[in-house]
């Protein structure tokens, strides 16, 4: 039995970066949603959501032809 090779145990260590970058993407998406909700809530104060559009048409138009 002297011809058998000696058994050597090996351990492989895999280091990770602590998780993916999903937290940053989630934060950006939530920030965009919050901004859109705030714009919707304050659209009247910002001038985006007027109830009616007023168009003024003059009573007469003067045209001078030479």
Description of the molecule:
The chain is built from two helices and no strands. By secondary structure, the protein is mostly helical. The longest helix has 20 residues. The mean pLDDT is 82.
Question: What share of residues is helical?
Answer: 25-40%
pLDDT below 50 for ≥5 consecutive residues: which ranges? none
* Beta fraction: under 5%
- Largest beta sheet, briefly? none
Q: Could you give a short description of this structure?
A:
With 66 residues, the chain is mainly alpha-helical. The chain has 2 helices and no strands. The N and C termini lie far apart (123 Å).
Summary tags:
membrane; transmembrane helix; transmembrane; 66 residues; mainly alpha; 36% helix
Question: Topology, please?
Answer:
Elements: H1 22-41, H2 43-46
């Amino acid at each position: 039995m002297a011809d058998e090779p000696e058994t050597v145990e090996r351990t492989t260590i895999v280091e990770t970066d602590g998780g993916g970058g999903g937290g940053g993407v989630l934060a950006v998406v939530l920030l965009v949603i919050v901004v859109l909700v705030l714009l919707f809530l304050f659209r009247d104060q910002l001038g985006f959501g007027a109830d009616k559009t007023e168009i003024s048409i003059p009573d007469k138009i003067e045209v001078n032809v030479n």
